[in-house]
Amino acid sequence: MGKVAQGDTQAFEILVHRHQKRILNLIFRFIGDREQAEDVAQDVFVRVWQAAKEYEPKSKFTTWVYRISANLCIDLQKTVHYKQIFVYPHFNAEHPNESNELFSYSDNSRSPEDLMLAAEKSRTISAAIQKLPYNQRMAVILKKFEGLSYSEIAKVLGCSVSAVESLLVRAKKNLREKLLPR
Amino acid sequence: MNCRTILKMFAAYQDGELDSSERSRVESHLESCLSCSKYYAETEGVWQALDGMQEIEPSPGFYRSIFKKIHAPPRKNHFQKYLSWIMDFFPAPAVAIPVLLICIVCGVAMGNIIGSGLGIEKNYTTHSQSLTNVNTVGVFSPIPPGTLGDGYLRLAGISEEHKK
C-alpha cells in the first residue's frame, strides 16, 4: 500500500489482482447485477488509488476496502431506490439483468440440468438477500461470504457490535421467512 | 433461560460469537427444548443454503477499465460547468463584483441617453393623441353606408355641428 501511495502502478495492479474477485463478488451479492457490480468494483479501486496517500494502517487493508465498497453499494442502492420511485416507476430492480447471471456460470463437469438448477437456486437466494434492508444485507454478506467477525463488521458499517448482532438476528429471521418452504 | 432469550442468541451462537458459558447455556436449552432445537435446525439449514449462491469472475478488461477511469477527466455536472466558466472569465469575486456594478450603471446611463435622444416619450404622446382624433377615421373612406364606420362618422358629424 505504501508503494501505491507513491504512485507505483505495478504495485497497484498487483493489489487489484489480489482483491478484485473478493470485492467484485461482495458487490455482486449486494446488488445482484453483474455489469453494475463490475462498474462499482472498479470505482472502489479508483477510490483506493485516489485515497492511497490518506490511508493510515490503523485497521486492516481489507476492512478499509470493505468499508469503501459498503458505502458505494449503499449509495448506489439508495439512488436506484429513488429512481424506482420517482424516475422509472416501471423499472424492475429485482432481476435487472437476469439472463446474464443465469448463464454466466461455466462448469464443464456438470450437466446442463444441474447448471440450470444451480443457477435457479442461486437466483432465489440472491433475490431473498436483495429484499433485505441495506445494512442487514451487507452484514449477512460480510459474515456469511467474507467470514468477518462481528467487531470487523461493526468497523466496516460504522456501528457497534451489539448493533451488528441485532442486524444479523433480524436478517436471519427475514431470510428464514423468505427461503423456508411453508 | 426462556425460549425468547435463546432465540435472540441464536445468531451469535451460530456465528461462534458467544463465550463458552453462554454457548453451554444455549446448548443445554437446545437439548431440552424441542421447538427451539427445531427452529435452530431450520435457521441453520437456511444459513447453509446461502452457500448455493455462485461466484462470478472479473472480466478480462477489469484492470484496464480501472486504469481508464483513473486517467479520465473528472466528470462535471451542468452547474459546475457554468460555474467554472464564470470563474475562468472572472478570476476573482473581488474583480467580478465591481465590473458587474460598472456594467449596470453604464447600461442605465446609456438607456437614458438613447431614450431622450430618440424622443420616445414625445412620439408616444402624439401617436396616442392621433388615435383619439375622430378625423383619423377618414382613412377608411369611402365608407359603405350602413356600416359601423358610417354610423360612427355620422355621430361625430352631429356632435361637431352641435358644437358649432
Tell me what you see in this structure.
The complex is a heterodimer of chains A (182) and B (164). Chain A is mainly α. Chain A has one domain (2-131): Rna Polymerase Sigma Factor, Chain: A, CATH 1.10.1740. Chain A is built from nine helices and no strands. Chain A has helices at 2-5, 9-31, 34-51, 61-87, 98-102, 112-130, 134-144, 150-157, 161-179. The longest helix of chain A is centred in the middle third of the chain and has 27 residues, at 61-87. The radius of gyration of chain A is 18 Å and the shape is globular. The model of chain A is unreliable at 89-106 (pLDDT under 50). Helices cover 72% and strands 0% of the residues of chain B. Chain B folds into three domains: 3-48, no CATH class; 83-132; 133-164, no CATH class. With 164 residues, chain B is mostly helical. Classes of the chains: A mainly alpha (182), B mainly alpha (164). At the A-B interface, helix 2, helix 3, helix 6, helix 7 and helix 9 of A face helix 1, helix 3 and helix 4 of B.
